[in-house]
Amino acid sequence: MRSTVPFNFLFFLCLLTLPACQTASATIDISLKSTSTPFTPVSSSVTLTPTPLLSNGSTPDPTTQSTPDTMRFSLPTPGAQPVTAWRPPLYPVPRAASPFDHFYFTRPIAVDQKNWSSPDYRYGGIFFKPGAVHTGIDIPAELGTPVLAAGPGEVVWASWGLYSSDPTNKNDPYGLAVVIQHDFGYNDQTLFTVYAHLDQVNVVPGQWLQTGDQLGELGQTGFTTGPHLHFEVRLGADTYFNTRNPELWLVQPQGWGVLAARITDSYGYVLTDLDVTLLSEETKMEWTSRTYPALGVSGDEYYQENLVMSDLPSGYYTISFQYLQKTHEIKVQILDGQVTYFAFRGLNGFGSTPPPTEKIFFFFTPTP
Predict the structure, then answer these.
(1) Are 3 and 165 within 8 A, CB to CB?
(2) Is residue 361 over pLDDT 70?
């Protein structure tokens, strides 16, 4: 059931936290909480080479839901793109090199287009003003680019007004949007994907889609100043309270992987809005990102991460960031088609073991 927060409050909140609305013409075609458990440090002068948390070939699977403490998000205009013009083909889905990985979704933009997240508009980024937190990723592309279903499922929303739950509200920040409730879940929870800022919608609620079916065309409707697709993954309920980082759910190009990290102070409290640099030892290419803000987004139940970078060619990298007026560095290996994880706990240094969780049973969950 969709949230029933009063519309007047939501619209007022949107005006406070989102940039000026620029609405393009559009049609509808078919009318953290820290743990106090022991931490095993690793000297920052030592190369850390993470390996799969469990051996390859294990059956996929999942986690339980955590609920963010606040309702804040923004849907901004994407920034500059990497220079990369070619990427390997994607792995088939679903893919999970360990029981804790969940690359269940293919890309919502075809492989002959730029179909990766803008590096400046990742999950958890804060844009324009404090408190405006991004609850998805932005994939920039040309107006009219086909937008594809990232997985099979039923269309449960295909109109304006997703944020306000009012299909007549053409001032809604999501613009024209589609939501799919997928026919599989994660840890016995339903999965949803959101496709926002569309220029045209080609589906209706109740319609069944297969992976790769076109659901609309990319646009710039809603609160945005440029054409891009805003893509979200929601776990457990179809609300902005239930988002997860899509970079941990979208399948990777073959030979590429994902970095996830939990970066905290010496007492285990997460370090927010911390700039982190990743430098390839082979190509000297550099990536930058920032740790999650204090509120508004949710980490994975297993990794409990506050930093993710995806679409990284496998190989060795040096990670660096500033903490207590000192540069901290560690070398990691990005592994092919899976998540590489590291942890930092202030004066305790680096480690590679995710924080313990309560007993969790991981399984891929078919749902009706």
Answers:
(1) yes
(2) no
Whole-structure pTM over 0.70, yes or no?
yes
Q: How many residues belong to the chain? A: 368
Which amino acid is located at 28 in the chain?
A: I
Section 276-291 average pLDDT: 94
What integer best gives the mean pLDDT of the chain?
A: 77
Using CA atoms, how far apart are residues 137 and 120, in angstroms rounded to an integer? 9
Chain position carrying tokens 């939990």: 262
**How far from 213 is each of 108, 109, 204, CA to CA, in Å?**
9, 11, 13
**β-pair type (243-244, 189-201):** unpaired
Query: Helical H runs in the chain?
Result: 7-17
Phi-psi bin for 296: left (phi > 0), alpha (psi -120 to 50), beta?
A: left
Give how far Cα 57 sits from Cα of 101, 227, 338, Å: 12, 39, 12
pLDDT tens-digit readout, 66-84: 333 333 333 333 333 344 4
Alpha carbon distance 31, 145 (integer Å): 20
Give the DSSP per-residue string, 85-124: ---PPBPPSSB-SSTT--B-B--SS-TTS--S--TTS-TT
Is omega for the bond preceding 167 within 30 degrees of 0, making it cis? no
274 near 288, Cβ under 8 Å? no
pLDDT tens digits for range 87-143 = 677 878 888 778 888 999 999 998 777 767 766 667 776 554 555 677 889 998 999
| Structure confidence at residue 113 (pLDDT) | 73
Q: Hunting for tokens 């509120």 — which residue is that?
A: 295
C-alpha distances (whole Å) from 154 to each of 187, 232, 281, 295 are: 20, 16, 44, 31
User: Cα(359)–Cα(172) distance, rounded to whole angstroms?
Assistant: 40
Cis? peptide before 94, omega within 30° of 0: yes
Backbone angles phi, psi at 253, to 5 degrees: -60, 150
Q: Are 220 and 229 in contact (CB under 8 A)?
A: no
> Phi-psi region for residue 284, left (φ > 0), alpha (ψ -120 to 50) or beta?
left
Among 175, 165, 179, 293, CA closest to 223: 175
